[in-house]
Amino acid sequence: MELMLQRIWAYFWLPETKYVIAAAVIVTLLSLRLLARERRRVTVTFIAFVLCLLGQLVGAVLEALDYSRLAVMLHELFVIGSGMALFRLLAIFVFRAILPRVGIVVARIAEDICVLSLYALFILARLHFVGLDPSSLLTTSAVITAVLAFAMQDTLGNILAGVALQLDNSLRTGDWIRIDDINGRVAQVRWRQTTIRTRNGEVVVVPNSQLMRGRFTVYGREEVASWPWRRWLWFNLTYDSPPTQVIAAVEQAISVAEIPNVADDPRPSCVLMDFGPGYARYALRYWMIDPQADDPTDSAVRVHLLAALQRGGMELAVPEQSLLVTKENEAYRKSLQRREGERRLADLRCFEILASLQEDELRTISQHLIHAPFVSGDVIYRQGDVAHWLYLLTAGEADVWLEFPQQPRQLFRTITAGSTFGERGVLTGELRHDTVIARSDLVCYRLDQATVEQLVQSRPEIAEAFAGILARREQEMKEFSQRYVEAAPDGTKAEMGMLDRIRSFLGL
Predict the structure, then answer these.
(1) How far is it, in rounded angstroms, from Cα 78 to Cα 63?
(2) Where exactly are the transmembrane stretches of this chain (predicted)?
(3) Cβ proximity of 286 and 231 under 8 Å
(4) Is 261 helix (H, G, I), strand (E, B) or coil?
(5) Residue spans of alpha helices (H) in 35-107
(6) How far, rounded to the nearest angstrom, does the alpha carbon of residue 417 sit from its chain's CA centroid?
(7) Which label site among 69, 110, 426, 432 has the fewest CB atoms less than 10 Å from its CB?
(8) pLDDT digits over 16-65, tens only?
(9) Which residues pair with 287 in a beta bridge?
């Protein structure tokens, strides 16, 4: 029995066995420590290595029992298996732990080719070691390979295309691509096919040969942080809106609005693209930062665009049908105008500063009101702008910000429904002293300077009411500004009170 155990040990434990086992254990431990995502693959490969060692032990037992032919076959089979497992462990450690840390990223297919080449060389070497002539085997396999290659032309074409795609880095995992009507992110580039995950959660499998023969567009890359994607939003307007005003209004509104996922640089641009029957066709072009949220970002930009067009009194060109010489339509239009007038009167009565006005005076003001909706994030005006409008807020909230030199802007107060703002610049001719940004969607109206002047001249007590409000806000603004600057800037005439400034500017 002891003699048999010695024979088993001598046949199993060769001089190089301890080095092979030590290398496999060290590489496995290092890979498990450094490669958290590859732990399952490393563990499975090491288990295969251990099983191959056990298979070699079984071959040694058979050799001790004088089953020499079967023992040699099993021994060589499991030696080849253990060698392939060791090469796999070394490849995982080198290609995925060592090379990336020195700045070398090797395509997965190139890694597989290197590993397969090592497998082939190792198998040929073992065959030569046991006395088999590999040349005869290669001659026979060449014929078989030719037959298989003819029968598997499409598969081989996909494999070669996959190798080419990864070796020249034209397509990588994580890329955002468009192929025909498919948009999505590359999940995997395998030997035979490339899988693309769309935004709907669908997995589309595309043969690699189709990618090589056709054309695909890459519009986003994971490792490239600054890769904005230009988007086009089309809209049609009637010819009543001058193109220069349309372009300026749209670019100004979208550039200053705080819209998530829209790049500040390059700036959004609006261009006149075409003339159609009864409409001019425009395109708003902006740059999207993250392609994942394409539809929500487009929707947010459309919301801001529509609000900007409505504020500018620019009508979208839509297909319409007119019925002429019908009394019902004329009556209907008058009914709409009457209901709109009543709604505006009801809104004006909510403003305390206008409570002293008579019904006919309110009705006159309502005829001069301009509907000015804003959406959350819209900048209504900025500090330092020239004042043209007085705003009456009927729904929503807006934040008032103060800007100081070399400091971030500070939130001064929040405007709520039923309040007016922007009065100071319109009544005194001063530049805007603050920046107002919509906190939520706003429903408000605005009055131009001529209408405000006419109102104040007809009702001087309104000037006094405005002066009281503005004087109180001016004092609050000075006290707030003193927290951030030693001497708060005051561009007003110090020798004159607020009411005197209003009278001086309006010529009362």
Answers:
(1) 14
(2) 20-36, 43-65, 77-97, 109-129
(3) yes
(4) coil
(5) 39-64, 68-93, 99-101
(6) 34
(7) 69
(8) 888 888 999 999 999 888 888 888 989 999 999 899 888 888 877 777 77
(9) 230
Instruction: For residue 62, count other CB atoms closer than 10 A to its CB.
Output: 20
Asked if residues 400 and 414 have their Cβ atoms less than 8 Å apart, the reply is: yes
For 162-220, CATH number out of 2.60.120.10, 2.30.30.60, 2.60.40.10, 2.70.98.10 equals 2.30.30.60
The domain limits of the chain are 2-151, 162-220, 229-311, 351-506
pTM here is 0.60
Cβ-based burial of 351 (10 A; exposed 0-12, middle 13-18, buried ≥19): middle
Q: With H, G, I as helix, E, B as strand and everything else as coil, classify residue 402.
A: strand
**Which of these, 267, 175, 183, lies nearest to 227 by C-alpha position?**
175
Comparing CA positions, the residue from 119, 3, 120, 9 lying closest to residue 57 is 9
CATH architecture, range 351-506: Sandwich (2.60)
Q: How does pLDDT run across 229-275, given as a tens digit for each residue?
A: 899 999 999 998 889 999 999 999 999 999 999 998 889 999 999 99
| Number of other residues whose CB lies within 10 A of the CB of residue 298 | 16
SS3 274: strand
Structure-token match 């040349």, residue found: 135
**Rounded to whole angstroms, how far apart are CA atoms 165 and 212?**
8
Q: Enumerate residues 6+ apart whose C-beta is below 8 A from 416.
A: 393, 397
Please identify every stretch of the chain with a pLDDT value under 50, giving residue numbers as ranges: 326, 488-489, 491-495
Query: Distance of CA 352 to CAs 317, 367, 419, 420, 452, Å?
Result: 39, 19, 8, 10, 16
The letter for the amino acid at 365 is I
3-class DSSP state of 442: strand
Type of residue at 299:
S
Q: What angle do CA 454, 460, 464 make, to 5 degrees?
A: 120
